[in-house]
């Protein structure tokens, strides 16, 4: 019978779930307020390049918005895959999560620049992005605690 995960692994799982839910909530909020967000981005792009046609302006605005939202979604999907892999005692996935944390940080900065509107929703969206990153970082650190590492190594199967 397999040994149950130690408390540190359960804590890491909890932190990951919170991170995923907060990230999904952020995506949900930004998606449903996208019209005002796109208007704000359109003005931002217009200020950056004065001689842009309306069609080009709309294309650039849409590209920036959807690429930023897609990057946040992609980071969550990569983390879900890696966490699931860690739960199947694949030690390499823990180390991959360290690299993904750097990607997560970069995506948070990108999303903070393009998905956080300057209106009253801005601090709310920024808070979601920050909490998601903090929970993911805490979960990654927790996965490297001695009890968690020992549990993963005890369950590891040869590849």
Task: Summarize the structure in words.
The structure is a single chain. This protein has 159 residues and is mainly α. Helices cover 82% and strands 0% of the residues. The chain contains six helices and no strands. It has helices spanning 7-32, 34-48, 54-87, 91-114, 122-142, 146-155. The protein is elongated and about 65 Å long.
Secondary structure layout plus pairing:
Elements: H1 7-32, H2 34-48, H3 54-87, H4 91-114, H5 122-142, H6 146-155
Helix pairs in contact: 1-3, 1-5, 2-3, 3-4, 4-5
| Regions with little confidence, pLDDT below 50 for 5+ residues | none
The total count of helices amounts to 6
Biggest sheet layout:
none
Overall number of strands: 0
* Elements, N to C (H/E): HHHHHH
Structure class: mainly alpha
Taken as a percent bin, the fraction of beta residues is under 5%
Q: Share of helix among residues? A: over 70%
**Rg from Cα:** 19 Å
Indicate the mean pLDDT.
Answer: 87
The first-to-last residue Cα distance is 21 Å
Spatial shape? elongated
């Amino acid at each position: 019978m397999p040994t149950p995960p130690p408390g540190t692994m359960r804590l890491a799982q909890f932190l990951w779930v919170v991170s995923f839910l907060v990230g999904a909530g952020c995506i949900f909020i930004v998606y449903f307020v996208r019209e005002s967000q796109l208007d704000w981005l359109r003005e931002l792009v217009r200020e950056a390049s004065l001689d842009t046609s309306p069609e080009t302006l709309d294309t650039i605005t849409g590209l920036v918005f959807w690429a930023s939202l897609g990057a946040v979604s992609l980071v969550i999907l990569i983390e879900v895959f890696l966490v699931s892999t860690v739960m199947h005692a694949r030690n390499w996935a823990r180390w991959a999560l360290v690299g993904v944390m750097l990607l997560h940080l970069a995506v948070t900065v990108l999303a903070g620049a393009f998905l956080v509107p300057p209106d009253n929703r801005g601090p709310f969206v920024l808070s979601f992005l920050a909490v998601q990153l903090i929970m993911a970082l805490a979960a990654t650190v927790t996965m490297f605690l001695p009890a968690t590492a020992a549990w993963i190594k005890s369950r590891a199967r040869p590849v």
